Structures are given as structure tokens and as C-alpha cells.
Amino acid sequence: MPPENVDPKKHRRIDRRSFLHKAAQSVAAGLGMPVFFGDRFRWPTRFCDTQVMNNTFVPEYSPLGRTGLELSTVGYGAMRTRDPAIIHRAIDLGVNYIDTAHSYMDGYNEVVVGKVLKTRRKETYVATKVHIDRADSMMASVEASLKSLKTDYVDIIQLHDLKRVSQLRDEGALRVLQKVKEEGKARFVGFTTHRNQIELLRAAAQMDVYDMILVAYNFKSPDELGSVIHQTADSGIGIVAMKTQAGGYKSHRMGNVSPHQAALRWVLQNPGVTAAIPSMVTYAQLEEDIRAMGTRMGWIDRKTLHRYGQAIDDLFCRMCDACRTGCPQDVDVFNVNRALMYADGYHDTKLAMDTYRQISQSRRPDACLACGRCLVRCRYGLNVHEKMKRAAALFT
Amino acid sequence: MSPKLSLVGFAMLIFVSACEKSQTGLDRLFPGPGFEKGWSWDGMLTHYFPDNLYEYIDGEAELYLTYGFQELATLTYFWGNADDTSFVVDIYDMGDPLNGFGLFSNYRQPGYHYKSIGTEAIVSDYGLRFFQGRYVVEIKTGNISDRLNKAVHTVAERISERIPDPPDLPPSLRLLPAEGQVDKTLRYISKEMLNQGFLPGGLEAKYITGEEEIAGFVVVFENPEEAKNGLNRLRTFYKDSNSPFVASHDVSGEGFAVRSSYHGYVLVSQTGRYLAGVQDLSSPEKGRSLLSRIVDGLPQE
After folding, report:
1. Which terminal residue of chain A has fewer beta carbons within 10 Å of its beta carbon, N or C?
2. Residue B19 domain flag
3. Are the CB atoms for B55 and A344 separated by under 8 Å?
4. Do A54 and A156 reside in the same domain of the chain?
5. ipTM greater than 0.90, yes or no?
6. A385 Cβ partners below 8 Å, 6+ apart?
7. B83 to chain A, closest Cα gap in Å
8. In angstroms, what separates the C-alpha of A357 from chain B's closest C-alpha?
């Protein structure tokens, strides 16, 4: 489903118009011309290995907000990469955006990316990150990044993992960003966020500071986030999506069906999203993911995501309260699940602990550790016994 | 004893056993707040498991999951009531010593500052990280001061003392020869060796040959048939990538030599359930000696 409150005319759907665009894109690919897609241009391709690898595959490029950068719609999340070879391969296949951070692998990840940039700087846009800290520490972090990356500048420097609006307006950090730009060490500035994203995006759109935002966004995200992403992009801020595979949950119920391409297509169907940066460590993953570029969400993708969603939905309690009276030990399953939801879903440890502590000692799930047979049945298939055991370990 | 009493006794036994299990978990590895005068803790031990580790360390969780991550317990220590002088201790249970080393090996590099805490410890701007047996311990500091450094090292040593596993390296790391190996470059990769989804895990390390740094590796399969299949799929990969094969007189037994796009010349040889190989070569002959040594050192099964 496309996010609500997003102008449906701006969605890239598989309809006659999209089909014609696609055809035009293929023709333009051969001519090296840009194609107008909805409300923005997407550069179709350069001559690269993709045309050798698969005649039907065409990399896609899209403008990043007001920066003027044209990013491949599937970028390279280097977080787990230790072998430069796979980044070289990605560039050969048309990927031109590499995302790393000074803190990944305690700094070694930038060294790996630097081994690539040493010879291929002109073919790529590179983004790295710095945590908000004292000014001298932040400057030292940026300098260390440049040294590891073997470059004089990064295209984007991002404040790493912001959670609060006050951090967006941190005067010390803003002065450092300004200085980094003035000294030519970064062309554009942005920030990354995983939590409280809607509030942060709305606030950033009101500021004339940030050029781009790296957002955790996937098919399990709330509709409101999709809308806010679109609105933020309309303000001129470029949006790049991470965590596009819905939290990295591994599901063994998918068999041979991979949800990765479908998940990427889902993210890229939001016109506000310029690019996604999945983490890829094998050649097969790379070639699977980049094939999402230039393609549109289809019926099979929706079915795949539906199935994937069902597979990971087992992790989430719907709070229907139908299990209230099922336990002969009188464990308060409902409120224990509520505490787990605060911990897992809201990431609010304090609220989770407070909720748990309000459950009387006799109704906590300690008894579940010694109980071999759980009589509580969840109508949505949650494994209540496992969740209770987990809560007992988590909150004890 | 009546059947009813037996049943109650059995239930009690299970309950006691469960309690003991929780007491011997990660929580017991944390030293108390009195480990050094002036330090305290918030007492809020938080646990993470494979299905929610992502919430604590974001995308890096994928790396930990590939190494069999079981459980994380995390706790913050702080100086007096000062929040700005604190450090976070994360203890990861990786299930077995090979996975413990494997995860840790992703963070080791030549030239880093190493300490002899646990099996091996790395000190960096981010704090201290060590592994011992199945456990990887990460101590993260927000800033650096003598007081903080001293406390971090003390806590690391206390945790090491509490870990029941001996600080020995897993024996399977000996599959790659130690002679000529560049110190701190040995890695255990749990799956998808050589960035290939169809290959299982194995070991890799850097070696010095003449003035060149080259890479040696061993891929470990369940049985010789799977190894042969892996060799054929690898050969097909290079063929499909239009990588030119070269005369394989440098490769004994089943194997091939190829000039790859990204790793220079690559030599691969199958021996039993292993694929041994050398890559990053400027010419095939420069890998011959190391490949022979790797193959000769593999167990004859």
C-alpha cells in the first residue's frame, strides 16, 4: 500500500504511463538522456557492466533534494563490508552512492571504503557520519574519516543517530557542520535518525540547514512516516532510506522467496525517497538488490511483502486482550505483552520496566520458566510461552 | 513416595533448575558497583535476544546474528552521580568460542592497541573490546580520562575472571598456517566466504610473500561432495564473470587458477571437504608456495 495522504498522481505505479516511461527510459539509456519521472528527473544509466550482465537491467538515478547530486536509487550501505571487491563490483554495476560511518567497525569500515575511493573517487558520492560531541572531538572525527576514506572531502557529512529535535538545533554541532562545509571537507550536511523520526523530519523541514536525511523506512513503517517523508522531500531536503528490510528480522518461513527486491521497491515507490542503501555482503545479494532499480512495485511484490509481513508479525502483540483468562497460573499475559511492546516496539525501556513493575509479583511470568505446557492460545498465533519466558529474562 | 509427591518433587526440580540457569547467565559476569571506590551502577540490566538485537545496535546486528548471537546483557556504570563520567558494558554470548573469535576478528587489525585481557583485547577511542571463549565484551566510553580508563580496565579484568571459559583460541583456527601470517589478520567468517552466497564459512588471513601482501583462505564444507560442488560453482562464477582462467600447473589436485576482476590472480584447490586458496596475487606463481603449505596442513579425513 502506498502511504496515505500522498498525492497518488505522484506515485510511480505500473500503469500505461509508467510503462511508457519505462520504455522511454530504456531508449534514453542508449542515448544517455534523462527521463522525466513524475515530479523529478531520473537519469537512466551510464554505460556499465549491467548492460553486459543483463540486457534488461537499467540502473536508475534520482536527484537528492536540492543538492544537485544524482544518486543511484539503490546505494551501497557499507556497514558490514570488509572486502573492497564487492564495492568495486557495485560501482561497476552502476551504484554511485556509498554510505559509511566513522563508528562502523570501530573505524575500519571507512578504511575499507577508502581502499575503493583511492581509485574511484570521481565515480562515487560518499557519505559518512559524526556523532554530536565536543567541537574538537567532532572535528577530529571528521578528519579521521577523511584520512581513512583517502579523500579530501565527503559529499555528505551526517550527524549520526539523532533522536530529539533539540539535537537538530544543537548550536555547537551546527557550528562544526558549518566549519566543515566552509573548509571544503563536506559538500552537504544531513543527519540520520531511527527514532522519533516524524517529529525530526517535520522540524528539519522548517530549518534551512539540512540538505538530506537518512531515515529508517520500510513496508512496516506507519503511513504517517511515508507522508512526512514526502512532505519533507517537497521542502527540498533529500531523503535516503535505510533499514529497508523491516528491521533485519530473519524469517525462516519465506522458503526460497526473497522479500528484498519487493521491500526495496516498496520504499522507492514513495516519490520522496531518492535512494535506499541496503547492506550487501555477497555478489548475489548485490545483484538481487540492484535489480530493484528502475522497476516498479507489482502484484507479486505485494504478495511477497504480505507473506513476509505475516512471517514477522508473529513478533507483535495486537493487544486484543483475548488471552486475559487463559493461564491457570494467572500470569498477566496482557500486561506482560504490553511491557514487551514498550520495550520492543517503542524502544522505551523505562516505560517497559514501569509497566512490568506494576504487575503484582504473583502474576509475573516467572512461573512460565518452570511450566512446560502453556494453555494460553493467541488468536493471532503468537507464541505466548516464549514471549513470557523472554519477558521473565528481560525484566528480571 | 506417592505419585503426587513425586510429581511435585519433579516440578520443584525443574523450577530450581530454571532458577539456577538464570543465575549462571550473563548477569553473573558483571562485577558489582563496588569494584572500585566511587563507582556505582544504575542496576538496570537490559537483555537483548536475536529478535530484538537490532533495536540496540541497528544494522550492525546482522553481523552479530551471522555469528550465532544468543543473548546480550548491557549495564551502565557511572562515577558518583555524574552522568558524564560513565561507561556502558555489553556482554555478548555468541554460543561457542569459534563464533566469539569470529565476531571479534571483524574488529582486529594490525597496528591497533592490544592488551592481554581475556584471550585478546583491543583498546580504541571507543573503549575496550575483548573476547574470551564464547563471550565478546564491549566497554564503551563517552569520553577519555585516566579515571575512566582505569575503571574500564578493572571492570574488563573482573569480567574476564568471572567468565568460566578458558582464554584459549579455538583449535580450528590452526587450519591456516601460522608461519608468514601477518599478525592480527586471521579471521573466521561464519558463512559466505569470498562474498559468495553459495559458499559456507571458513578462515582467511594475510601473508607476506616477498614484498607483496597476499591472502590465504580455507573454506570448510560438511563433506568432500559439497566441497567439490562448491569448487564447481566458484569456477562457474568466474566463468560467468568473463574472468580468464590460466594454466593451473600451480594448483595441485582439483582446482583452478583465474585472473579475477577484483582480487588479482586467484588459486583454488579442493582437498577433501576443504577448498584452499590464495588470492590478491600479481602472478599465479607467487601463490604456489602458500597454497601448498595450506593444503599440506589440512587434516587428512
Report:
1. N
2. no
3. yes
4. yes
5. no
6. A368, A371, A374, A376
7. 15
8. 13
